[in-house]
Structures are given as structure tokens and as C-alpha cells.
Amino acid sequence: MSYIIKNVAIAGAGGNLGKIVTPTFVSSGKFNVRVLTRQGSSTASLPEGVDVVEVDYSSPESLQSALAGQDAVISLITTTAAMTQLALIDAAIAAGVRRFVPSEFGSNLANPKTRANPVFKHKVVTEDYLVEKASTTDLTYTFFYNNAFLDWALRANFIVDFTRPNPQILDGGDKPFSATTMQSVADGLVGVMLHPEETKNRAVYIHDLVTSQNRLLELARQARPDRSWKPESVALDDLVAVAEKRMAQGNFGFETIGPFLKRAIADPECGGVFSDEQVDNELLGLKGKTDEFILELLKNHLK
């Protein structure tokens, strides 16, 4: 039976993605937005028009009460707290919520090699839990894959470190990958909620464009012709091998996680290049971006 999603609860609204998703839903004028905040958290950055409810994530009763009357839950909880989503899923079921979007944003977890990536372990557990619950309850799910966060990756010098005169590029730098801005993720989530039947119990794929490290370097040189970068090619396998050793020693910092993320994004075997036929851009109302858009991002980033 088809249904309309009107009341949307957002968990993790204060994070990098949440700060874009929440105002996008409010400004759309199509939803009643409820934000779940941890007890004592600041709500200063939240837009007007949201219903703020404090929750105790260790209390099933608190979570169920917060989700009463909600049609959908969008989880933007950080990866480090991903396992708290299981309690949120249980509460959603108890409260009669119809759709749950877990915090899976990023790489293609439908790909077996990506699914085996250790940094996504908790995301895989969450996906499997939702699939199981959807088979026995009225709760449905949508998984959301957008591969690399384009704007965040440029700002963080993650895909290419433009602060270095000799930035590392992976295996020659020509590996293509899908990339998506955080605003497009937010717009795509609105599209999911407007098309509940078409996005029911499946993954949706979006991207703004397909690019590569070398293409980003070309655009950076256009943005800043006065600067010179001489990239150094490194083997992705070597980076991951070092990261595996660090992980085995109990080091879980970003210097360990980063190479695993780069593998999921840029290794051709990890499914990080979405075809035009694969993406759900048209269904979700997304038009994509051009190299000119990236050029403007780089001009601002490289000032």
C-alpha cells in the first residue's frame, strides 16, 4: 500500500551533513521536521520551524516517545556512533514509523569488496538489521549511496591534498569515481521522501558527476595558474597495507581510516563509479554538476 511521508524525524542534525539536510527539509515546505537531540545538546544552529525533542539514546522509552507520530526517520549519526542506530530502528518500529534511512551515506555497500571493508563494519550491521526487520514488520528502508563527498573532500584536502607541492595521487591518478556535494545529498533525501514507493526497501544511487584526481588537478591549475603542483603517484595497495598494520596495532585514527576510504571511493573493483543508468538522479529531481562547478569550488578553496 502506498503512503505519504509528511512527518520526518532527523537524528544527527548537528553534524556536517545534518547542518545541510535539516534546513533543506525545512525550506522545502513539504514536511513537518522533528530534530532529535541528545540531552543537553545545543540547538542554536537549528533553523526555525523545527520541532526539537531531547532524547536519551540509551532509553527505548525515550526514543519511542520522540518518534511517536513520525512517518520517517533520517539518521545522520556519525560513523563512530553508528551502532546506536539499532536502538533507533527498534524504537521506530515500536512507534509505527514507516521509513528509515540509516547513516550509510557514501560508498557502494552493495559491492562485496566495499562491504568487506573494515571501516564499514557497523554500517553493514545496520543494513542487515534493517533488511531483517523490514521482512517481519511494517518498517521500510532506503539505503543512500553517493560515493565521495565532493565539497567536503576538497575542503579537507582528502582526495587531493592541495596544501602539498607534491600531492599523492593513486595509481597514476586516472581512476574515475562518482562524487556528490552534500547539498545534492540533502536534495536527494527530499526526493526519497517524496517518492516513498519507488524508493522502498532498496538502495538509491546519486552523484553529481564522475571525476578523477588528475582531472581535479587540471581544474586546480586553471583556478590557480600561479601555483604549481607536481603529483607523486603512490600505489593504493601500499597505502592500504600500511593502514592494515596500523589497525592491527589498535590505531583507528584518520591516518588509518583514510586509505580504506580511498579504496572504497577510487578502486574500480569497489563499485564507486555510478553509471547514468544506475543513478536515481532523475527520480529524485537532481540535475548533477559540471566541471565549471568544481572550478568555482576550487577557486574558493585555493584562495
Automatic annotation (TrEMBL):
Instruction: Describe the location of the NmrA-like domain by residue ranges.
Output: 6-218
One matching Pfam family is NmrA
Query: What keywords sit in the KW lines?
Result: NADP, Oxidoreductase
Segments spanning the bilayer are: none
Q: Which PANTHER family match?
A: CIPA-LIKE, PUTATIVE (AFU_ORTHOLOGUE AFUA_1G12460)-RELATED, NMRA-LIKE FAMILY PROTEIN
Name it: NmrA-like domain-containing protein
